[in-house]
From TrEMBL:
Keyword Lipoprotein part of the UniProt annotation: no
Domain Luciferase-like: 69-389
Gene3D superfamilies: Luciferase-like domain
InterPro entries: Luciferase-like_dom, Luciferase-like_sf, SsuD_RutA_monooxygenase
The organism of origin for this protein: Pseudonocardia endophytica
Keywords noted in UniProt: Flavoprotein, FMN, Monooxygenase, Oxidoreductase
Full protein name: FMNH2-dependent dimethyl sulfone monooxygenase
Length: 419
């Protein structure tokens, strides 16, 4: 049956769309207002071992590695809501990194995790993560996320990922004999420019589906839809917030045109002063804001942190040393190979121990190690640099969430970062 004939069977006439790429904000952008100067997210609660590729988690897997399992993750989310976190952010994971720890080898998916957390919490914002390059159709994602936003009373946001992973590509059949495109020697079927163009088009159609009261026709380079409609539409007005991580010029340009919250990165503490770290974040934050402003848009600046804390700096440092000494090098090696697109049994000689530690403990996010006072000070530094939203991952999730609520949030209030 032809598309034209199929459309005649639909109950309502569809509306042709004109826009294919951003900036595109039908009805305007969602509000970027925050309840507190520094928005706090609990990150990577839905995957085995979170962001900690360390054999230390094997000393008590139920406590350290398997917090993702339900109902343990339900209890963790409810605790985060109770102590004052503003939202949760799921880590998008389709295949883990192996090693002795089976790092990230199990996870709640973007649809189930968000829906389950919607009914388990009352106030907590819910950010789910979608890999747009894995050929999920925007209609499928629009339907799932609109329904979850409806169930949650308008608390959903969507984290858009355009990055690739070799093992995920294989699972989804990219480069296989049934594909109409050949993979390159690394198994990668799309260039960075193509992936961001695809993400751009994905977001445009997603926004059409979220906001249009009428069925829409969309004829894009990567996605097509005819008479497509989502009902119920999202409760969020005018739509759920979109976020993305960006570091390359291509990534920043895409996120500035289509997303509302953007994750940035800066220098680590090792070998750099607090002023240097703060300045690195401030420079990137200014660059991202300027990119958004060039398109007549505003964005929320976000940062990601791996936090190890205790009553004193010394005790926190001792724990961090233990985690570092037990790094699951095999798992980190797998991660390195998959994201570099070069399958490898060993890390290259030029990859030093600091790089391994940064990747294995926080996937190169900001490592904050110290007393509760130190943690509060470093979060204040990030805020001073322009970061308005921090997503935090803890290697000992349940106890860390409670300790953060009891000790760190009061210190953030003293610094004017929480009300």
């Amino acid at each position: 049956m032809s598309i034209d004939n199929a459309k005649k069977l639909q109950p309502r006439a569809s509306v042709p769309t004109e826009v294919r790429r951003g900036p595109f904000d039908p009805g305007g952008q969602p509000s970027l207002d925050r309840d507190h100067p520094l928005h706090l997210s609990l990150f990577a609660w839905n995957v085995r071992s979170g962001l900690a590729a360390t054999k230390a988690v094997l000393t008590d897997e139920g406590r350290y590695a398997d917090q993702w399992k339900w109902p343990a993750s339900r209890d963790l989310l409810q605790a985060a809501e109770r102590v004052g976190f503003d939202s949760q952010l799921q880590y998008g994971m389709w295949s883990g990194y192996g090693g002795e720890t089976n790092w990230n080898g199990a996870a709640l998916d973007f649809a189930t995790g968000a829906a389950a957390s919607a009914v388990a919490t009352e106030r907590l914002g819910l950010f789910t993560t979608v890999h747009v390059g894995y050929d999920f159709h925007p209609l499928l994602v629009a339907k799932i996320t609109a329904a979850t936003d409806h169930v949650s009373g308008g608390r959903l946001g969507v984290n858009i990922v355009a990055a690739y992973d070799l093992a995920d590509y294989a699972q989804f059949g990219f480069g296989g004999k049934e594909r109409d495109r050949e993979a390159d020697e690394r198994g990668i079927t799309r260039t960075s420019a193509e992936r961001y163009a695809m993400a751009d088009e994905f977001c445009t159609l997603l926004k059409y589906l979220w906001t249009s009261a009428d069925p829409v026709d969309f004829e894009g380079e990567y996605f097509q839809a005819y008479g497509a409609q989502v009902n119920p539409r999202p409760t969020s007005d005018p739509r759920p917030l979109l976020m993305s991580a960006a570091s390359s010029d291509l990534g920043i340009d895409f996120a500035a045109r289509q997303c509302d919250a953007i994750f940035i990165a800066g220098l680590q503490s090792g070998g750099h002063s607090r002023d240097e770290v703060r300045a690195s974040y401030a420079t990137t934050a200014a660059k991202v804001r300027a990119a958004a402003e060039s398109y007549g848009r505003k964005v929320r600046i976000c940062g990601m942190c791996f936090v190890v804390m205790d009553e004193t700096d010394e005790r926190a440092a001792t724990t961090m040393s233990w985690l570092e000494n037990e790094i699951d090098v095999a798992a980190v090696t797998n991660l390195y190979g998959r994201y570099r697109g070069v399958p490898t049994d060993a890390l290259p000689a030029d990859v030093n121990e600091n790089w391994i530690r940064n990747l294995g403990l926080g996937i190169s996010g900001r490592q904050i190690v110290g007393s509760y006072e130190t943690v509060a000070n470093e979060l204040a530094d990030l805020h001073e640099a322009g970061v308005e939203h921090v997503a935090m991952c803890f290697w000992d999730p349940a106890r860390s969430v409670e300790a953060f609520g009891e000790h760190v949030i009061p210190l953030l209030k003293e610094r004017g970062l929480r009300h």
